[in-house]
Amino acid sequence: MSPLCLDNLLPDYIKRFEAYIPSKPDPELVKLYGCRQLYRLNNNENPLGPPEAAREAIAEFPAPRAAVYPSGDAYYLRQKLAEKFNMEPDQFLVGNGANEVISFVIKAFCESGDNIITADKTFAVYEWVAEFSGFVASLVPLKNYEFDDQGMLDRIDDRTKILFICNPNNPTGTYWNTGRLRRFMDEINGSKIVVLDEAYFEFVEAEDYPNGLSLTREYPNLVIFRTFSKMYGLAGLRIGYLAGDLSVVDAIRRTCIVYSVNSLAQVAAVAALGADDHIVRTRSMVRQGKEFLKRELSRLGLTFVCHEGNFIMIKLPMSDTLAYRKLMTQGVMVRAMTSFRYPNHIRVTVSEMEAMQAFIDALEKILP
Amino acid sequence: MEDKPHPNRIGLPLCGLDLTIRGRRTCIQEETSLPAKNTNTVTLNVRANPMFLHLVTTFVEKSAIAFGLDEPEALSLTLATEEIFAYLCQSSSPDREVWLRCTGGGYYAEEEFQFEAKDFSMRAFNLTASPSVDSDPELKETGLLIASRMVDRFRFSQQDQELRLVLMKEKSYPRFSELPAASTQPLKEFSVKAPDPEELKLLVRLLNLSYPAHLVPMSFRFPGKVVDMVASGDCFAIVAADRSGHLGGGALWRWDGPKLVELYGPYVFSHEPDSIMAQALVEHFLGSVAKSSAVGVINRHSTPELPSEYFESLGSLTVPQEEGPPLTVPAYYRHLEEDLGITIWAHHSLREFLRKEYARLVFAREIRLITDEGESSSSYSVLSAEFDRGSSRVTLRPVWWGLDTEENVANHVRILRDEGIGGIFFAMDLGKAWQSRFTPAVLNAGFEPRLVLPYAGKGDVVVFQLAGGESSR
């Protein structure tokens, strides 16, 4: 038999692509690094967990319903979203985490030879999905830690289909205000799809921060991503959504995988949506944590980037991946930022004070 | 398996044997996750039958010339191929299928054999193998010995029952000019970018003139060769230049297997301490490889300008110099990912060294000890030897474990010492349990463990150096 020649079978864009390998489960990491406990400060999860109403919905979920397929299009959740945001249910598409809806949009609008535009130092999944789908991801360098609007406009060519903007940006926390976003949308003038990823929307307290959903009425080419993984503490259930103009969402729906969102996630998300007190408590915790971190990091002589969102990025006088390993031995798990093209930086989830103190104590021990 | 027609493939039924020839210009990857290489390949699929010997040698010779080798180099590769194919014909049934792939990578031509490993003796690829007229089986191996010495590099790999044998021959290039290439004053402002071919040749000349030989690998002493290496995707380069085109420095890197990148430099011609340029070059380099399949970066040619806060100290190696006593040079490493921890295999005599190194480097490792429980083994072992004659260094690597390992390693050391090699190294992949079986023989031959290179092979690689072998050249 002739030897298997993957070289002839794999598309070039798959050969070039490197699979993402997620970290091991916590018990395995604890064993490997010999620590007693682990503070997870790497994924910007909410340490307060889901809102009370969502907890109750999860606890009351009848086990026999696991045998029944979920609502294929998250019917009740879309009703609830429409009611909350004064839109039509069909203006929403629910996915298995916001990551899935990124694929829906790219598949809907891109064909061979097309490209997308985003930033070089932002959430990596836009770039990944484009590349492993065979499309070029054109990466515009951040300017002063912010998405560079003019730089992105200058990159547009005839084959550009989508521009992805992370607002606020992960990992820098910077955002475009309403005026800046409007000017950008006016320049685009409906010629391209603009995706505004608002994964950290509920954390932002700045008054000039735009509400993307309301802007979709004026800009039908604007698509909004939101997630239940961050503020609403449902990361383990994987549920997020996109919203936009009816015609655009109808086009995207053609590439949408139905039944990909499980029933438990759907009922928990419906319950979570009304939990405004949860948002207030979480914002308060983040505010307190940020103040503490800024004070302590300044005391240690470290520079940091801290804007919106429940995270802070810190510049270290050492390799971030080495810092990651050393912090793991102290029971603190952060995000090493070389993979975000920020070498010698770490990103830390702002959490409860016990975890923040543990992080600072560990950091002091490992700094050269 | 039926050989189905293919638009790019010509099927020639010949004497009941399948013969196919195909050629293409393509971007290929040696491993699926490596960056694409800009190479030309032609392939030939034949049975191991002497009637095809002339076809095989003609295929290789014509391919090598088409790929840019001069006649003498092409002839060497052809003769090596002839010896191997003849040996295959002698040592196996005429039904054995052999896949040959000749690849032209700009600065080299490479011949790859792929065939069933059964009944094939790799013993002759030992540097120590010598022709013997006393017994027929060893006489058969003489051809392979000749082949192994006709090429610049050879390497083996085995997966399941398939053996891959790769012979490589490089083109000849003129050495860099000793004449000053350009001024090297500090630049007031600069940007980092990929150089065009003329800038790249200038970079190579300048770094050879600005840095001692031990900081410049032999491959980088030939400007034209570096241009071809970059064009083929085998090497990557960046330069720091001002708007007038003056070069202030640069850095180069190459992949060393699917998970490791070797960085050379950063070279900063003004030799400013705490150079912003050095930091900019390193950051640009890290940005280039951060989202690749590379897990780590090694730097064994670190310049004084290397910004140490970006790297971890692995240890040091002692290297011979062209003049003067041997030098102790540091080796630096940088991990690119959040380490997930791995299991490695080790002989008990190496456990303490590894335990200390992993604690110092803060790498989570489960060390599993190998055992010998009376299982059958091959009667012979095989080592590959990778020469860097310009630097008077040789790196030995295990290819095949066998009962004569102790004697084989000792013989290799003797031959290399007789040849006056100044730096003799042994690289052992701890991700492959069988390689750890070489440990007692390596230690008994006088090697000392010097470095652990994380993820440099299937697992981590331990680099041993022969103690007291670091003579000057």
UniProtKB/TrEMBL annotation, chain A:
InterPro entries for this protein: Aminotransferase_I/II_large, HisP_aminotrans, HistidinolP_aminotransfase, PyrdxlP-dep_Trfase, PyrdxlP-dep_Trfase_major, PyrdxlP-dep_Trfase_small
GO MF terms, alphabetically ordered: histidinol-phosphate transaminase activity; pyridoxal phosphate binding
Pathway assignment: Amino-acid biosynthesis; L-histidine biosynthesis; L-histidine from 5-phospho-alpha-D-ribose 1-diphosphate: step 7/9
GO biological process, alphabetically ordered: L-histidine biosynthetic process
Keyword Amino-acid biosynthesis among UniProt keywords: yes
Aminotransferase class I/classII large domain location: 40-362
Cofactor(s) listed in the protein's UniProt record: pyridoxal 5'-phosphate
Keyword terms of this UniProt record: Amino-acid biosynthesis, Aminotransferase, Histidine biosynthesis, Pyridoxal phosphate, Transferase
EC numbers for this chain: 2.6.1.9
List of residues that carry N6-(pyridoxal phosphate)lysine: K230
Keyword DNA-binding: no
Reactions it catalyzes: L-histidinol phosphate + 2-oxoglutarate = 3-(imidazol-4-yl)-2-oxopropyl phosphate + L-glutamate
Subunit structure: Homodimer.
NCBIfam families named in the record: hisC (TIGR01141)
Family from the record: Belongs to the class-II pyridoxal-phosphate-dependent aminotransferase family. Histidinol-phosphate aminotransferase subfamily.
Protein name: Histidinol-phosphate aminotransferase
Native organism: Desulfomonile tiedjei
UniProtKB/TrEMBL annotation, chain B:
Organism (species): Desulfomonile tiedjei
Protein name: Uncharacterized protein
